[in-house]
Amino acid sequence: MRGRDQIPQPHLLVVFLSVLLTLATTSYGVNVTYDNRALLIDGKRRVLVSGSIHYPRSTPEMWADLIQKSKDGGLDVIETYVFWNAHEPVQNQYDFEGRYDLVKFIKLVGEAGLYAHLRIGPYVCAEWNYGGFPLWLHSIPGIKFRTDNEPFKVEMQRFTAKIVDMMKQEKLYASQGGPIILSQIENEYGNIDSSYGPAAKSYIKWAASMAVSLDTGVPWVMCQQADAPDPIINTCNGFYCDQFTPNSKNKPKMWTENWSGWFLSFGGAVPYRPVEDLAFAVARFYQLGGTFQNYYMYHGGTNFGRSTGGPFISTSYDYDAPLDEYGLIRQPKWGHLKDLHKSIKLCEEALVATDPVTSSLGQNLEATVYKTGTGLCSAFLANFGTSDKTVNFNGNSYNLPGWSVSILPDCKNVALNTAKINSMTVIPSFVHQSLKGDADSADSRSSSWSWINEPVGISKNDAFMKPGLLEQINTTADKSDYLWYSLSTVIKDNEPLLEDGSQTVLHVESLGHALHAFVNGKLAGSGTGNAGNAKVAVEIPVTLLPGKNTIDLLSLTAGLPNYGAFFDLKGAGITGPVKLKGLENGTTVDLSALQWTYQIGLKGEELGLSSGNSQWVTLPALPTKQPLIWYKTSFNAPAGDDPIAIDFTGMGKGEAWVNGQSIGRYWPTNVSPTSGCSNCNYRGSYSSSKCLKNCGKPSQTLYHVPRSWVESSGNTLVLFEEIGGDPTQIALATKQSAILCSHVSESHPLPVDMWSSNSEAERKAGPVLSLECPFPNQVISSIKFASFGTPRGTCGSFSHGQCRSPRTLSIVQKACIGSKSCSIGASTSTLGDPCRGVAKSLAVEASCA
Ligand code: GAL
After folding, report:
1. CA-CA to 547 of 20 to 30 Å: which in 286, 560, 628, 776?
2. SUEL-type lectin domain: which residues (predicted)?
3. Is 170 one of the annotated active-site residues of the chain?
4. Catalytic residue list contains 257
5. What DSSP state is assigned to residue 4?
6. In whole angstroms, what is the distance from residue 638 CA to residue 646 CA?
């Protein structure tokens, strides 16, 4: 036996070395503060570009790639909300696993060398179920949300402190050497606080001091909160924030939500925001003294499960963000913003060194100069009118397209104009394949499905009776979308009115969000609200029988409200009246106050059918176009790594699970209005309904299935269909980037990468058109169109103009085919001059294989 004093020398050496190693690898905290111009990181003012990625809206397997693509796109910061109801579904029972692994997400941000902005809320809005509040919060006695209410404040503080502690324990604050440089408390309360009376003021003061007391070592922000108490920075949210000023001369001008597009609702058309306008808004913000801007969203992702808010928010949360729902780069949005970020960063030194000086160059024309005594000079020239202008600045002449900003990092040469896009456009497409690769006959397709009928009306043992009509959310606590309201009513022999051709009408009024009415076990009619008005009122002609008739009303929610004062109290479900009209001689019977039987949720939910277990049937023939059926099949994953979607065309409405994981609610029968999609011009103020596509079509047919949720073969797909559909029509699809285009004019600035080029020759060569295949191992396989002169049209539909250089196609083919990427000078020196004195451009369409 050796005593303690006998530790041999080598052990001491190991201890010593490991101490040294620990010292060397411990990252020391940085100091994050702010002044009137910017956030300061270790005493240095910074110009920062940020983007939102919400971790539960993708999978952990996707996170590193999304973060890397954000970094490659020029972001410095990743911003996310923290989703309380995901993390604490049951009071005091926490979930930080899988898609809810917040610590892992923040660590990945740090590992990529990016900063994080943690918006704890814990009210988050975000088109997320109930704005992020857990449902149990609603049932705490005496609670009132988002106001000076003790029970609410206790819970809000507990959760906020829990998250802060967790981040501290993992050393994730910048003050500890981690990536988090900023935190948010509350969310846009200033937009609605007047509804809460004087208690709003004391609540916001409390929230501010509660947050500050948690001592994160980094600044806190409140967005859209003009009265945010010191030291909390009030920040701006909106499509434009260039005119925003913070509430103190000591706070920097920050923009926490620049909406890169907009969210989609079931029943709505698909919103998009042209990148020319988005880039204009960003450039205007940095032009007029802003130093921190965040894209909401940079990656929107998917509302898996029942996580959508609304009601009626779609399962896709694509948002027209620079990274699409599936995590693919959206071009030209991503690329043009990348160029924009580089141009702004070329100005960073001047931007943080001094205050901007803005002067007018004419109507709707503004020059802003950042000039120091030490010789730094950067300038922004803006045209916020809609027509093109030529301006004179410092003795030079500059062409400014309408609604654009030119960025001059040296006060002379243009690095970028927000309306002139050098980045290529990529048009993606979905390639469909059947669920059963080998089964093409209708017979074999249907034989691969099995099913279980969901009973109409009451089927569970925990059903209960209550007189009168119950509000749905209080009743279900959102354990399920579904609540059955059931009743039997006796019709006397002489009551049915069929002889004279008139019918009885079932009248139902509901707070929403949708309902299906069954009479004597048969679907008699349905009704649904919409994003603008969740309420449902239906008048359904019904055929009653003499004697006992059953009325089973299935009421359903489609995402709980997330926005507005008292959104938590809006309620849902059939609150009545429920009446039978047109009984004998037009009499009306009001059923509202009768004894109703209630069932929360479905039998199939209780049985756990979503996992695919249980006894599924395959005989007799597959039922189609019938309501309330659970379907099951298995499928093999499409080969390759392209993102996967399921196309639910042919189905009605329901929810779907892949290998037991919910991919969300599907609703391809909810179609957008036919009008509202007329041509969208990026010039002029954007609003969420300005630019829409997909009018008159289903709002969403394709639903994302994350690659990490599927095996190469033998995957289980389960769906619950409410209305009726034909599951044999369901198909798999993979998202691929099909067509590449670019259109660059002689007056485009040089690629921003070449801005600081010393080579006179390069500078003289003029603008450059570049194409690059989006995926590794791809090369440009064909040039579908190439024209230098006056080509017309847009990507996918270019055509030659009157003026065209005959050599263009062969020059482009030679430069591009067989290569992963290629660049061609968009100038007469490369392509010849087919029409002297005419403004020319080069348009190319290519494909990769
Ligand atoms: C903001 C809110 C965000 C999100 C956004 C719309 O008002 O702060 O959480 O809901 O609107 O997408």
Report:
1. 628
2. 763-849
3. no
4. yes
5. G
6. 11
